[in-house]
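Course assignment 3, question 2. Fill in each field.
Student: A.L.
Task: Predict the tertiary structure for the chain below.
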Amino acid sequence: MKLNDWLTLLAIVLGPISAVCITLWIEATRRVRERQLYVMRMLLTTRHLPADPQYNAAINLIPSEFNGEKKVMDAWRKYQDRVREQNSVEQQKRVSAAQSGMIFEVMHCVGLTNLSEGDIQTQAYVSQGFLDRDTLYLDSLRAMPKIAETLDKQRELTQQIVNNIPGRPPTPSSQLPEVRR
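Answer field:
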């Protein structure tokens, strides 16, 4: 066999193997980019609603999806530090600036460079109806313990009224229905 024959044989064997390896590498790179874009989209769509579960999920996904990106991880750590500070108006401004910086770095990492940090901070749309709904929902959650306490008092008062009906024997409290909290 001549050198040309050996090279042809080598090309026949290595050609498909290298093609498969290149395809697998491209597919893995594409999947990483898709996951990073998903996190970026969640951050952008919920950045003015930090109580949104998708926002929290996106923040928690940053270390796994951007672990190799130093600027993103530094911005994420800075945001985490700002969020843990005491709550004040000045602190809220620092959190907002850190959040914008983090989202900016995430966008830069995935190749989107058409928004500045200032745009990210100021150019979000949230409908007033959505904010009103969210506020109403949070207010209703805060009211639940008071409602439960009031219902418990009402049950006790009703039982006292029933026990004070003339000619009726008192009902032992062990026979009263249990109220869950």
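Instructor remarks: The longest helix spans residues 3-46. Residues 3-125 form one domain.
Grade: pending
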